Amino acid sequence: QTLPVEGGSRSVTVPNLAPSRRYKFNLYGISGRKRLGPVSADAITAPLPTEAPAQPSL
């Protein structure tokens, strides 16, 4: 999957990733017509949040 990111961006959200999975990202730069890189980054997505058990009520 390719996700274009503006040059001045400091963060980006990658859609449709599964929770608790390891991903490898290959990052490339473009200068004119020349491709620079890649620089690789590994990341693990956060697990799904667990719901706290409901407190009993009277």
Word description of this protein:
The structure is a single chain. The chain has strands at residues 22-31, 34-44. With 58 residues, it is mainly β. Strand 1 (22-31) and strand 2 form a beta hairpin. The protein is elongated, with a radius of gyration of 18 Å. This is Fibronectin type-III domain-containing protein. It comes from Sphenodon punctatus. Residues 1-53 form the Fibronectin type-III domain.
Order of helices and strands: EE
Which percent band covers the strand fraction?
Answer: 35-45%
Poorly predicted runs of 5 or more residues: none
Measured on Cα atoms, how large is the radius of gyration?
A: 18 Å
Structural class of the helix and strand makeup?
mainly beta
Helix tally? 0
Instruction: Give the end-to-end Cα distance, rounded to a whole number of Å.
Output: 52 Å
Helix content: under 10%
Molecular shape: elongated
Please give the number of β-strands: 2
Largest sheet: 2 strands, antiparallel
